[in-house]
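fold-stage: in
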Amino acid sequence: MVLLLALLTGATASGLTAVAGEGAARCLLAGLAATGLAVPFFNRLIAAEDNAPRPPARVGAGPAERDGDG
């Protein structure tokens, strides 16, 4: 997922550089630079979502609690 987002970022940067009228070499360099910077950015962004606090589970919501003798 991180690499896909980074490649999309690099392709967008290359495309925008080409639209701006720059040469092929500058387009390639802009795309590679954007891709290189996007990898750690999206990696941290996705890792932050994994570590987000989750609400506690409700008491008695598990299957063992529902099937008890209680």
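fold-stage: in (second)
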Amino acid sequence: MCKLNQAKPSQLSVIPSTHYQTKPGLLTLPPVIDELQVKLIPEATNNPMPPIKGEQLVLAKPEIGNIYSQLFKMLSQTSMDNASGPIKPTSSSSVKTGKVAPDAMQPDDQHNMMRVSIQKTYGKFGGEQAVTQPSAKPEYSLLSKLTQFLPLLRPLTLNALALPSTLKGELSAIASLHSQFKPESISVSSLSHISSIGLLSQLLLGVKARHANGNTDKLSGPALKYWQKLQAQFGGSRSLLSLLDKVGATEALGKLCSNLSLYSQASSDTSTQLNWYFTLPYSLNQHQEALEGHFSKDNADDDNPEANSWSLQLKFNLTQGPLLIQAQVTDNRINMTFNGSNHTLLKRIDALLPPLMNKLADIGFTPDKLETKLTKVPASLLPGEHFLVKIKA
């Protein structure tokens, strides 16, 4: 580290260039513009930072649930009446009294602003009862209109995902999230949730590309033809898609698809082990969450080709806190641990372990040990250390 002396010479002195002529060539020294006193100081570092390895990186946990909540909140607060005019999100309620109307307030009228604020907080002012009236009906929101064309736009419940056929369909859709659809063979009304998200994302990307910088020729011929067929199968008007793009649905779906893709990017298949990370959104008590999964399997060893060893982790965000289920299987013998930070939740699970052991035996497993464990649950199953980021929706 070097330190410059702040006291500079009062007068700037410039030494002209000096030329030295020798037989091999000409050496030119440029002029000296200024002179400064430089003092070298050793840099003191009591705790030198070690080199960061890939697995030591601290990353934010994917916030799929928050993205869903913000997206649905935005769509539910946008009225379809704005389809042909300025887009203004509708408020959940408006307050009116016999003397002061919020719509009549002037920006500089501090008295009226304070009056309305107290009305919203306490429900009355000056002995007058505030009347709360809904400003928009849910059936006229952009979300309700969109679900007429895509019934499974919202994530399924956990009970619905418990069905093997439904679970298989959603996992397959995750794997082909960014793939092209076959417009002639799809039935939009019967699409799975993930397929509905993928279809809507592609439609909105087409809208964004067609109207970029006012140029409607951004899409190539084949891409435009594909988008038009997809839009025809979707059934919604182009004005509906344009409205979705204007309120920010394109960007929200882009973030959602990026978060969903993090799990496939973390998956790997080497000569020694298979690692598959996955996630599935779900609804829980009107809230949007996402389960995480990690399947790991050792590839067959040349010395023991018939060995069957694999493990599965499933992480849920439940009402009473997170729950991490870990299962290890070796030659059909299974051990399971239910990890959680809520004692009441684990106590309820303890009561269900005996019938679970019978169910596992019915499908061909031999249960060795099933237990619950009170411990801290990691923020994410993705590789690396992750931390939670709370975002106010």
